[in-house]
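Posting this for the archive.
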Amino acid sequence: MLVVSVSGPRGGGKTEVVVAIIRALISRGYRVAAAKKVLKDSIVREKPDTDAGRMEDSGAGTVAMVGRRRSRVTMALAPKTLEELLELLSAGRRVPPDAAVLEGFEHLVKDRPDVIKLVAAHGERDARAHLRGLADPVLGVCVREPVSSQLFTDSGSPVEVFTFDDLKTLAARVVEEAKRLRMLP
């Protein structure tokens, strides 16, 4: 399975990059799962005054809200490894996803050579800070402000720089690289 991780500072455009990658993969016929790391549990909990919220508050470890076309599940667990997160993203699916696009989760993927990494940042300084500690492959950096010099990974590999006007190009590069690395058929 292809795993793509997008990291960067708050407000750096991570979600924009994630959405572009998801759209590129879906348009090519791939099944995609996505996950976003949030800092506050209150964001992922149901509101206490809803039926699902009362079910959570009663102690249910898993609560499913099931509609005609969509379902949503909340669980009282936090994946501690990439494998646990990928298992969570595949749960309940007859056919597992071809790709998982992650926003955040640097602590789970930074050392993984089997994860394509991207950084979304305001500018060069943020980009350099968020590149530090990421193992290859780091495909690129997407920035809002111009970058004055070449960026490199810790291993010395050059990093391609994109702007937010280039999101379609960046997303297409992710698909190309995933195929080259045999992470996608």
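The helical segments are 14-27, 41-44, 51-57, 82-90, 106-109, 124-131, 167-180. The first strand starts at residue 2 and ends at 7.
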